[in-house]
Each structure stands twice: as structure tokens, then as C-alpha cells.
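A note from the maintainers: we've had questions about how concatenated examples are separated. There is no special marker in the raw files; a new sequence line simply starts the next protein. For clarity in this README we add a label.
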Amino acid sequence: MEINRSIAEAAHLREQGRFSEAARIYEQVVRAAPSLSACWYNLGFCLRHSGRFEDALSAYQSAIDRGVSEPEEVHLNRAVILADQLRRTGDAERELHRAIEINPRYAPAFLNLANLAEDAGRRDEARVLYERLLSFEPEYWPAVARYASLRAAEPEVSEALCEGLERALARFDVSPFDKASLAFALGEVLDRAGRFDAAFAAYDMANGFSRAASTVRYDRGVQAGFVDRVIGAFPQASPKVDHGSWSPVFVCGMFRSGSTLTEQILAGHPRVTALGEFEFVPSLVQGGLAPFPESMATMSEASLSEFASSYEAKVRALYRNVDIATDKRPDNFLYLGLLKRMFPDAKIVHTTRNPLDNILSIYFLNLDAGMSYAAVLTDIVHHYREYRRLMAHWRTLFGEDILDFDYDAFVAEPEPNARRLTDFLGLDWREECLAFHKRTNLVKTASVWQVREPLYVRSSGRWKNYERQLAPVREMIADLLTEEARL
């Protein structure tokens, strides 16, 4: 009876999102009754959401060892931790293969295997996996959308892809969430086929479904107020306080501004380790630093030193011999004041591109619901202006440590601009930096296939294909475009 009460209490805490507290109770339960496989599973879930990833793996394994129902799902959960948090891709793939051995028609395992193959640049393998999945689950909509995007550039299949996507979008039994993915894929196929008016209509439809699938709405007043508060919390550069000799390089800017390409250029240098979209800073802001930025008013140097040491420890746990690490989270531009307090010597690479191309690219991408500004063109414009306002402030504080790396300039003249990048970081020049399309490291962003190709120019000036649809946006940012033209 006591165990049942504890299980009920833990479940209540879990449902409230109080994962650390729930985990402590589940740990007590499984010590008292180790045969309860479902409690081991729930413990693993809570540990994972508490950031205790190795402990979560152990708990999930205990659930499997004790005969948990649907063990293929537990292997899938282990694979997600191994791939996303611990960067152990080979181990993640083995977990997914084990899930398929248990259940040969387990669609989520095939989908995740195909996603990992895409992240690693293994296009043919990803295609085969999607086709195997769709052979027994033809209405598994996430796979339908991903498969269409994978083959969007192949003209011989574009008509069939469009027809299949349009049939799915016409159905009444497909959720708005799935329809958003399908419509974004349709837009991509049409765009690559040069059918620009139809493509824009598809992307409009996709963003409409995104809005319908989410309760999160972009609040312009809230965003402007946040930027005001950040600027107020960091009115001037603080005196440098040494928190250790090591500093990462932060690559940031608007989403879809070339940050993935920039990191892949640097990853060609033997001294550089690409972290990708490292979660440490957003997790810190939402956790130990909440409410941010108000918490900075009373933040001690000892705490900042502790955060910096924790950051470094997490990096070295993943990459033991790291020298220079690049942290490529575009939205870290929101936190540069904090980052320069933690790492006073940190260099900032700020990625930029033509504003119209940037805004269009965001609108054409199926971003997370938390980025609610992305589903409305005028909201993207507002968010873009607030980003520019905040970056202007950071330049007044840390200008000598910020390099603007322009995507369009790089496309026009690759080597001189790549050399500016390596010179800024004090690195000797390596020709391998321009061989970014040959990298075998995982790329877990929407740019996964762009950076697997030799340099191309089709994304620079892409907005001209949609000049009519973007006319209102051009008027809204006319001053920014005039400013860009002067530079």
C-alpha cells in the first residue's frame, strides 16, 4: 500500500513536470521493489528530463532487463539520449536496430535511423530506410514528409511527390501538425522545381497548419520587452574576471543565416571541435539563472565561474581532447552579455545574410513551436528588428570580439572570407576549411544537405524568386536594406 502511494505521488510530480522530485521517489520505489519494470521506465524518463543522462540509460536498461512491456520503445528512448545528449551515434544506431529486431514494424525506430543517416550525410541509406518504413506504414506522415524533402531535388520524381503530398493534405483524418510537415515538404519540392508561386502558396498553407497545431503565439510586446530588459541588465562591459584559461567560440545570429555552414568551415581545422547546437546555455537560462536577465543583478563571480567550469566539463565529457570548441546556437545572440561574463575572452562569430533571404528562409522552414514568430511573415520581421537592435548593443560592448561573417560575401568569394574567419580566431589557414561538404561529422539542423554539397549560390538572392510575395516585407524593412546597401 505504501509503495502504491509513492508511485501515485511520483506520477503526480511527473505530470507537473517536477522531474527531479519524481525521480527521487521512483528511486526509493525501485530500491524497495526492484521487479517493477514500469517504475524503472518512469525513473528513466524523469532522469532524462532532469539532465541525468547516464543514470537514465541505466534505469531504462533495468526496465528492459525486468521485462517491461514494449521494450522497443525503451530502446528508442535510449537511442535518443545517446544520439542527442551524449553524441554516441554508433551506440544510438545499435539501440534502434535492437528495437527493430524486437518489432520489425516499429516505425519510430526506422524514422530515427533514417534521420541519423541524414545527419551523417548518408543519403542513399536514409532513402532505403524511409522506403522500408513506408512499405509497411505508407501513412506514417513524418516519414512521408522527410522522404519527400530528401528527394525534392530529383526532377524525375517531383510530380509524383507533389501528387502524393497533395492527396495527403486533402484528407480530413490528418492532423494539423502532420499537415504542416507535409505542406512544408510540398513547398520544398515545388521550390526546387522552379514553381515559385505554387511553392509560396504551399509554404503559406504550411505555416497556417503550424499555427493551428500550436497554442503558442508570438507576442511582439513580450519580445521587445525582453530585449529592453537584457540591454538594461548589461548596460556596459564588465571588468574581465578570469574564470579559467579555456573559452569556446560562440557562433550566433538569426536562424537560417549561415551558422551551420560557418561552423562546418571551422570544423575543417584540426584544432576545432564542432559542438553544434549545444544545449548548455539555454538550459542554464531556463534553470539556474531563472528569471533571466533579472538574476544577473545579484549574480556573483563565483557562480559565473562555476557555470563556466560546468560548461567546460560537459564539453570535455563529450570530447576529451578538445582544444577550440564552436558552440553554434543561433539564438545565443540573446545571451552574449552572460556569455562574456562567463568567458571574458570568448570570441563571437555573428552570421549574417541578406535580410530578405533570411526572412524568407525562416518562413519556409518547419521550426519548433517555441519559435512562434516563424509562422507569420510580419512577426519574423519584428523578431528580426529586435535581433538587430540587440546586436547593435552588443557591438558597443564587445565590438572587438565580434566578427560579422556574411554568408553572401562568402558565397561570392569563399577563400578570402574564410581566411578572415580563421584569422579572427588566431588559427593558421587550412585548405580543408573549404571542403565543408566532405565532413563526416553529424549535422543536426535543417541545413544538413546544404552543407553536404559543394558551395552553391542558389540561396543567395533567393528572395528574387518571390519578389511579388515579399513586396510588403521589403517596405517594412526598407531602412535596413538601405543600410545594408551602404556597407
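[label: protein 2]
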Amino acid sequence: MRRMNRNRAIAGMLAGLAGGTAFAAVMKLDIALSGKRVDDFQLLAGFGPLRHNWQVAGAIIHAINSASLGTLYALASDRLPGPGWRRGLTFALVENTLLWPIIMLLDRVHPAIKAGELPTYNRPWPFLAENLRHAAFGVVLGTLYERLRRS
């Protein structure tokens, strides 16, 4: 495996953070419009000692995930077809699809879901919302990554 250069890794991390911001904006918008609290920040931070401060902890965890996925994207982007936005979209939707089976487990064990603070996720609306959020993440990730690599 060839080593990724530092500039590509940084471009991936920055693009991932921007993509994560787009994801969060779409999440806040779809929650406001739909009235359905499918909140990934609470899902991410709902375990352990930070459960009651999930807004901050969830945002931090989400930012770390976004930067990490951006770095992974920097490794994979050259292997994906199409322009940057399409490569990012493909990457994000594949990631969401591959990880979706974890939702079936989380629906059974997540403290906030069990307490009724969050709805179960393995239903049509959360699946659609997650795909819309990941699409926003991916388009921003791929577009910005290409621009950063060119500069």
C-alpha cells in the first residue's frame, strides 16, 4: 500500500470537517421540518458518562468521525469514478449503507432509545434522513477535497 502524503491527509481531514458541518446542518433542518428527533449527536454520545451532556459530546464525536472519514476518503477517492462531488457522494452513501446494520443493534441497546428520548432508527424516515445527511456530507467532502488538492 502506498503511503498517503501529508497534504492529502490534511485536505481529507478539512474536507471531512466541512462535510460534517453540512451533515449537521441538514440534520438540524430535517429535525425542524419533520418534527422527528432523529439526532445523531445524541445517538453518538448517548452511552457512558457524557450521556447527559450529549449536545457538546455528540458534536465533538461527530467532528472526530467526520475528520476520520475525510482522511479515509483521501485514501479511497482516486479509486472512485466521476468528478469529486460524485466520488464523495458515493463514498458517504456506501459508508452509511455498510454501517446501517449496526442500527438494528443500537435500537435494542441504546439508553436514549430505550428511555424514549430518541426514536428507533431502523424505520423508513430515519433511513431516509440518514441518507440525505450523508449525501450532504459526501457532496461537500468530495467537492472541497478536490479544491484543496488542486491548491
